[in-house]
Amino acid sequence: MSDKELLEAVETILFTTPKPLPPRKIVELSGDRFSSKEIRDAIKNLNRQFEKTGRVFRIEAVGDGFQMRTLTEFGRWVQKLETVKTIKLSMATMETLSIIAYKQPVTRAGIEFIRGVDSSHTVRRLMQQKLIRIVGREMIPGRPSLYGTTKYFLEIFGLTHLKHLPALAELEKEESASEQLEIPLEEDEESFSDSALEPASGLIGADEPPDDPIKDDQDGEEEIT
Q1: 93: helix, coil or strand?
Q2: 149 and 111, same domain (yes or no)
Q3: pTM, 2 dp
């Protein structure tokens, strides 16, 4: 396969896929005609072309794969499409998500110790939106659930690994930016593999009943659009 065909294949595959694809999957879809290194080189080449010609999108590393994404400054136009649905996370929910992201694995009691309020409702909403999952059970009386972020969390926030989370000092400088965060809404429940619900290595499996029942009036209310 020529360099031109390689670029055309990679661009076409990433343009049409709704989910990030790892290089090995792109290799498979192209008939195993080139290596993962060639895929990565082709992506760099395509991004240089996109930047040079002033295109409004780039191929970004997301999770363990690559996805074609609109540049942030043009996101407002994408959100006007009826096919793009979003969910607004309140400050209470974002606060809970931040604690889980930086402290994981963490129990609900650990979250509530930091926040100072009951967090049952926000934990449940984050579970429903597939941003967090149960990764195991803490080996103490009652064996409470341990929570951690999901692969979808990385995709939504454009991260390839948790180590790329911004430093807390950076977040403090931007703390007053907005009262709500609007993110794309995941609709395809089958897009997540069963492994998303499996406990992390070395932890007790998530085979116990869920935590105490959640009351809908607890800890604020999130607005979904």
Answers
A1: helix
A2: yes
A3: 0.55
